[in-house]
Amino acid sequence: MPYLFPDPSADDFLTYTFKIHMAKVPGGFKPSCIETIKYMLSNLSYAGAVIYKGSIIAWDSDRAIVDKELALWAYHKITGRDVEGNVLEGVERRSLRSDSAQAVLKYILRDPAGPLYVTRSDNPEYVRQSLIKDQGPDHKLLRDITFAIRAHLVDDIFLDRIKALAVADPHIAQTIEASIQSLEEQHIEETVSIEDQLVNVRLEIKKMLAFLHDKILILTPKEKADYNKTLTGLRDQEQALTEAQEQADQTDLKKDFQELADLLADIPGKLSGSTMERKQKLAKLITESVTIEEVSVHWLRLTVLWRGPLANRPDVCLIWRQRGKRSEDWKPEEDEYIKANYTYGDKLEMLEALPSRSWNMIYQRALTLGVHRNVNTFNTIPQNVTIEDLNVIPDREMAMKLVSEAAKRGNRSYGVWLYSAGLAEFAQEVGQRNINSGNWPSPFPRGSRSDHPRAGQASICQ
Question: Does 358 have pLDDT greater than 60?
Answer without folding.
Answer: yes
